[in-house]
Amino acid sequence: MSAVPDGKKLVRSPSGLRMVPENGAFNSPFSLDEPQWVPDKECPRCMQCDTKFDFIRRKHHCRRCGRCFCDKCCSKKVALPRMCFVDPVRQCAECSLASQKETEFYDKQIKVLLGGGTFVVTLGTSEKSESMTCRLSNNHRYLFLDGESHFEVELSRISSMQILTDGSSPGGGMSRANGMLLHFKPMGSQDAQQLRMEAADDKKAASLWLAAMHKAAKLLYEARDQ
Ligand SMILES: [Zn+2]
Ligand SMILES: [Zn+2]
Question: Which residues form the signal peptide (predicted)?
């Protein structure tokens, strides 16, 4: 274990080297815990192709689901940023697919979210709204809203998220995301508060940001349901 800059540290797990926040309380809300490995004695055969393990056919654990496979069924090494692995790690076919899909989120959408979008923001049922830039914080834990005032929403406190669209066009074209309705519980409160964000001047950028947020929401719920 060694300390590195910006509050992260390297830890070694049986699955590989991981770069995790120094303080566990600052884990990204998109992160997944490492799975428990299925104990060796409980898996005499590959859980995919049923090949019996012996001295020649060795078993391997998928780093994402913890199940046991033969080399053929678990040979792919794929990046797994949600478990903070530094290098690609061995995964089964099903998990490789899921991880590859998430790579796009880490390569593209997360950058869009960090970059931010401009929205007209209404808090609660207030009549007053304000033009604000909304972006994901660097540690992925908060939405920062900045206008004349500053406001933040912790992602883990969001109880529901609805993407608003401009409705389907008469020609049957794709509807475009133009807003978001959030419910969240502010620190120290049990009552959910509503936050409404509507695309402001740059509608295209706002729509991209909302699409990225939609994808983020899916990952968040997956991480919570784990
Ligand atoms: Zn197999
Ligand atoms: Zn797996």
Answer: none
